[in-house]
């Protein structure tokens, strides 16, 4: 059966969506495992990394095949360039989910609920989840307007994270027996901040693919 360029592009797009949904699920499970100190769920995430890596390699191979067979130009070329970069960002997101889960498996003591509350961790994660939902819709519907929504939410996420060190320092002064758990949570918060950055990268690639607008390195307002 001969597959034309349009069919191959649709197949690639679907695999990219599968990768996006998988990495979103991995991150959700890793965060839940962290909050509940659920080592079984953390192990599930770590085992799921195999699927993430397999999809990463498949997308890369399919992009190379598309370039070789169809010599794309204009929007088709932008699509391939965007999907490769999006795939790279998603693979990094999967790595972060793996790393968070690995902390849960390696650490014996549960992080106190008081630390999560002091950091407004739930609010931070809700913002991140909202960004992931927006970017999934934007990807599925090729919607530039929804893509742009994540930038404002990313700023709100950064404001919460900017206070993390001072908050945890204050909590440690109250109880120096939580030093290890506080430092671990600080590392996780920074990793989730990085996820926010990766989501913004994906939004930029969707905008580039659809509107041929390059946002990278634009002067920040």
UniProtKB/TrEMBL annotation:
The keyword Cytoplasm applies. Its main location: cytoplasm. Gene3D superfamilies: Phosphate transport system protein phou homolog 2, domain 2 (1.20.58.220). Residues 18-104, 122-206 form the PhoU domain. Keywords: Cytoplasm, Phosphate transport, Transport. Transmembrane segments: none annotated. Pfam families: PhoU. It is found in: Cytoplasm. InterPro entries: PhoU, PhoU-like_sf, PhoU_dom. Belongs to the PhoU family. Plays a role in the regulation of phosphate uptake. Homodimer. This is Phosphate-specific transport system accessory protein PhoU. It comes from Lutibacter aestuarii. The gene is phoU.
């Amino acid at each position: 059966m001969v597959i034309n360029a349009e069919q191959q592009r649709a197949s690639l797009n679907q695999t990219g969506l599968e990768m996006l949904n998988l990495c979103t699920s991995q991150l959700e499970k890793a965060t839940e495992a962290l909050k509940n100190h659920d080592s079984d769920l953390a192990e599930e995430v770590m085992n799921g990394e195999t699927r993430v890596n397999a999809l990463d390699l498949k997308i890369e191979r399919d992009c190379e095949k598309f370039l070789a067979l169809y010599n794309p130009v204009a929007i088709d070329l932008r699509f391939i360039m965007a999907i490769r970069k999006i795939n790279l960002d998603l693979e990094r997101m999967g790595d972060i989910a793996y790393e968070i889960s690995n902390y849960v498996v390696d650490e014996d003591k549960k992080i106190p609920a008081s630390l999560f509350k002091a950091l407004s961790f739930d609010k931070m994660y809700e913002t991140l989840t909202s960004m992931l939902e927006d970017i999934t819709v934007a990807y599925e519907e090729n919607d530039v307007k929804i893509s742009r929504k994540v930038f404002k939410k990313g700023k709100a996420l950064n404001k919460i994270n900017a206070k993390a060190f001072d908050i945890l320092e204050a909590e440690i002064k109250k109880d120096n027996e939580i030093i290890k758990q506080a430092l671990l949570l600080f590392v996780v918060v920074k990793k989730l901040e990085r996820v926010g950055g990766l989501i913004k990268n994906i939004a930029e690639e969707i905008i580039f693919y659809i509107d041929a607008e390059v946002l990278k390195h634009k002067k920040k307002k």
